[in-house]
Amino acid sequence: MIRILGIDPGLNHTGWGIVEAEGASCRRLASGVIDVPKGETAERLGTIARELTQIIARHAPTEAACERVFVNVNPQSTLLLGQARGAALCAADLAGLSVEEFTPSEIKQAVTGSGRADKLMVQEMVMRLLALDEAPRSDEADALACAICSASMHRLRALEKSGGTSRIYATARRGASGRGARAAWTSLLAKKGEKP
């Protein structure tokens, strides 16, 4: 069993969620949003780091997962998001947690089946996957989705390790073209004597 802390960093609102994953099952232990008060940037980043440190101490996750920064249209927003992410990563590392990082589209793909899902779809699917009574706040749902994505990657790696699959067939690698992924599937089926 692994206990994963998912983090959706933000300078105004940092979502967090802890899930326990065992085999194919995943359940939420705790989740919420750190609503960062207005003030100087250093104080706000300190708030994120301190709050996450307390959350880690309270719930004892075994590892963490965090959303990668994407380049925004506004460079200032990207910079501030990167700083919030840095505070979150530091808190996880200082607590001795290894951190997996996923792009927003990888996280959406893992929980909704589409890398282009909107926030409402992510909230709805997180609620269903974790059997929650109500949809979590958007930032909280994104953090839980990040943890679910990490749990899915653990299952895939376990399958690879057991010899049950090879990653080239299980999922397209980052940067791989759709044609390359299709060619890999076609090759696998040909080896098994089946038609694509």
From TrEMBL:
<comment type="subunit">
    <text>Homodimer which binds Holliday junction (HJ) DNA. The HJ becomes 2-fold symmetrical on binding to RuvC with unstacked arms; it has a different conformation from HJ DNA in complex with RuvA. In the full resolvosome a probable DNA-RuvA(4)-RuvB(12)-RuvC(2) complex forms which resolves the HJ.</text>
</comment>
<feature type="binding site">
    <location>
        <position position="139"/>
    </location>
    <ligand>
        <name>Mg(2+) 1</name>
    </ligand>
</feature>
<dbReference type="GO" id="GO:0006281">
    <property type="term" value="P:DNA repair"/>
</dbReference>
<protein>
    <recommendedName>
        <fullName>Crossover junction endodeoxyribonuclease RuvC</fullName>
        <ecNumber>3.1.21.10</ecNumber>
    </recommendedName>
</protein>
<keyword id="KW-0233">DNA recombination</keyword>
<keyword id="KW-0963">Cytoplasm</keyword>
<dbReference type="GO" id="GO:0003677">
    <property type="term" value="F:DNA binding"/>
</dbReference>
<feature type="binding site">
    <location>
        <position position="8"/>
    </location>
    <ligand>
        <name>Mg(2+) 1</name>
    </ligand>
</feature>
<dbReference type="GO" id="GO:0008821">
    <property type="term" value="F:crossover junction DNA endonuclease activity"/>
</dbReference>
<keyword id="KW-0227">DNA damage</keyword>
<dbReference type="Pfam" id="PF02075">
    <property type="entry name" value="RuvC"/>
</dbReference>
<dbReference type="GO" id="GO:0048476">
    <property type="term" value="C:Holliday junction resolvase complex"/>
</dbReference>
<keyword id="KW-0255">Endonuclease</keyword>
<dbReference type="GO" id="GO:0006310">
    <property type="term" value="P:DNA recombination"/>
</dbReference>
<feature type="active site">
    <location>
        <position position="8"/>
    </location>
</feature>
<dbReference type="InterPro" id="IPR036397">
    <property type="entry name" value="RNaseH_sf"/>
</dbReference>
<comment type="similarity">
    <text>Belongs to the RuvC family.</text>
</comment>
<keyword id="KW-0479">Metal-binding</keyword>
<keyword id="KW-0460">Magnesium</keyword>
<feature type="binding site">
    <location>
        <position position="67"/>
    </location>
    <ligand>
        <name>Mg(2+) 2</name>
    </ligand>
</feature>
<dbReference type="InterPro" id="IPR002176">
    <property type="entry name" value="X-over_junc_endoDNase_RuvC"/>
</dbReference>
<keyword id="KW-0378">Hydrolase</keyword>
<dbReference type="GO" id="GO:0005737">
    <property type="term" value="C:cytoplasm"/>
</dbReference>
<keyword id="KW-0540">Nuclease</keyword>
<keyword id="KW-0238">DNA-binding</keyword>
<dbReference type="GO" id="GO:0000287">
    <property type="term" value="F:magnesium ion binding"/>
</dbReference>
<feature type="active site">
    <location>
        <position position="139"/>
    </location>
</feature>
<dbReference type="InterPro" id="IPR012337">
    <property type="entry name" value="RNaseH-like_sf"/>
</dbReference>
<comment type="function">
    <text>The RuvA-RuvB-RuvC complex processes Holliday junction (HJ) DNA during genetic recombination and DNA repair. Endonuclease that resolves HJ intermediates. Cleaves cruciform DNA by making single-stranded nicks across the HJ at symmetrical positions within the homologous arms, yielding a 5'-phosphate and a 3'-hydroxyl group; requires a central core of homology in the junction. The consensus cleavage sequence is 5'-(A/T)TT(C/G)-3'. Cleavage occurs on the 3'-side of the TT dinucleotide at the point of strand exchange.</text>
</comment>
<keyword id="KW-0234">DNA repair</keyword>
<feature type="active site">
    <location>
        <position position="67"/>
    </location>
</feature>
